[in-house]
Amino acid sequence: MATATYAAIWSDDGSRLAGSARLGADALDLTGSSAGREARRRIAYDDISSAHMAREGEARVAGRPAVVVAMRGIGPDVRIAMTQPGALHEFMESLTKLLSEKGVER
């Protein structure tokens, strides 16, 4: 699968970062910034225990539905929302395919 990059808003500690989410061959790469913080995070697919779509409650990011990526004990879950209509479903479908290829449950 070719890499795909999406404009995204993501959070790994409660603060929101605007930037991008890139689905690479071996890892999910997140970059972002907010007032006073710049962050880059590379998450190997092998380090992901599951991923699911969250449409309600605190799992949302900036009021938007998000993909919640649960980690294998190496940090907090990451929540990722997309800024383009329809992109969240495309992102989730692509991530699910990549995780399935690596033997990770959705």
Q: Could you say which structural class the secondary elements and strand pairing correspond to?
A: mainly beta
Number of strands: 7
Number of domains as seen in the coordinates: 1
In CATH, the architecture is Roll
What is the CATH superfamily classification?
A: Pleckstrin-homology domain (PH domain)/Phosphotyrosine-binding domain (PTB)
The CATH topology, please? Answer: PH-domain like
Cα distance spanning the termini = 18 Å
Strand content: over 45%
Q: Give the averaged pLDDT, no decimals.
A: 90
Overall outline = globular
What does this structure look like?
The protein has 106 residues and is mainly beta. The protein has a single domain, classed as Roll (PH-domain like), CATH 2.30.29.30. Helix content is 14%, strand content 46%. It has one helix and seven strands. The protein has one helix spanning 87-101; strands spanning 4-11, 17-23, 27-34, 37-44, 48-54, 66-71, 78-82. A seven-stranded antiparallel beta sheet has the order 4-3-2-1-7-6-5, with helices on one face. The longest helix has 15 residues, at 87-101. The protein is globular, with a radius of gyration of 12 Å. The model has no long low-confidence stretch (mean pLDDT 90).
